[in-house]
Amino acid sequence: VFCSYTPTDMMSNRRLGLLHTSQSEDVVDTQYSFDDEGTLERADPELCIEIFRRELNFSGLQRRLREADRSWMSQFLLVNGLSALFEVLESLSQKKSRRGVVVFDDGTGSDAAGGAVVPAPDTSYQKSECVACVKAVMNYRRGMECMVSGDGFIRKLAQVLDENSNELKAQVLELLSALCLYSSEAYKLTMEALEDFKSLKQQRFWFSYLLQEFQHSTCEEYLAAIAAFVNCALAGIGDLAKRIKLRNELIAHRILDVLGQWRHSTNEDLATQIEVFHEEYASDKDSSEDALSGEYVLSLEDTVNAVVEKVRHTPQEQPFVNILNCLLHLMEQGDKRSADMWKIVEELCLHATGKKKKSTSEDNIPANDAIVEKLNAILKEEGLPKENGIADDCKKESGEQGTGEEVTLENGGSTPEE
Fold first, then answer.
1. What is the DSSP string of 241-259?
2. pLDDT at 11
3. pLDDT at 413
């Protein structure tokens, strides 16, 4: 993907997407290497994997993967070569080191006999070399296809973002950027992997961690990789409205301020990626004015100001204030129920304005019924009586009597008052 399928064929490779990081072939970890480098170069795929598992000769394997022809690579994948790479990558974080030191999550370790606690060996270099091997495999179409169709390979790759090494995380983001642009399925799996990673980091949005990294890191190469991934995550969305929605979420989390701090960076890659973000932002804005009748949301502040100007001194002014106070209360709660309620509020607004389909794509349940089912589920979890809660209010607004039964809304939408 780094030779034939990089963003060069879709847009300027220099301006959007992968960073051309250099991998030194001369640096070899003496702890894990062996003398006969030619053994790997002459080995068939199965023997190559066997030698690699035993010796962890990353440098030799990288060279063999880069020089392999399509037939050799196809056989390498057939004998589960990519799986072997990810097994080694996981083991570098989890298993005993070759010196018999057990590594714990806090970065310390103890000897095999359970003696004194000692510092765990730093495996960042080995992990970086292993990811470079994965990159060499992804340079081939078959390798990329195996990456997408394999058993959780993308999810395992995304988990490496939890490491401390900025260089290693930049490598991982480079590969995830390529996946975002490779195919719709690869994009979907990449976003799912980041959703899992979001849960691991206890974040609300998948991009929250990256924006935090951008604010706290001073490594410009790593920052360039983050900005490139954000650009690829946006470019991988073909639908204009969905792309705008994601960008608006990023803007609401102050990505413009975050990027603005580095806009005049002397690092060419970082400056280029920031420029790409702003240019694609402007381009989508122009496109949306035609496609969406000028409904493009510039920023959180602009949106709120526009609403305030429209409702000021109108009958809708006090309801608007009440709604904002309720949303503020949800934000202060900050739990899972709060997040679920936010989604329901959004769905209700989209449905009320005709921007959401009348039925879900999965089970053909009318949109109103689907929303109310979610609302009832939340109320049940909280143990709230529906006859005195939000659900009953919905029924009363619909002209029904509160009976304490499950809430239903008439198909076809709600009244203007609702």
1. HHHHHHHHHHHHTTHHHHH
2. 44
3. 41
